[in-house]
Amino acid sequence: MKLGAQLSTTRGLKTAIMEASERGLSVLQVFSRSPVGGQSKELPKTGTVSAWLEQAHIRPFFVHAPYFVNPAATDPTMQERARAVLAEEMVRVKRLHGDFLVLHPGHCQGIGDEAKAAGLEILAGTLRYMLTRPGIILMENTAGQGRELGSTFDELHELFRHLGRIRRVGILLDTAHAMAAGFPLHTTEDVTRFLGAVERGVGLNRVRGVHLNDNAYPVGSHRDRHAHLLTGHLGLPALKALLREVRDRSWPLILETPGSTVEAREHDLWQIEQLL
Ligand SMILES: [Zn+2]
Question: Where is the Xylose isomerase-like TIM barrel domain (predicted)?
Answer without folding.
Answer: 20-265
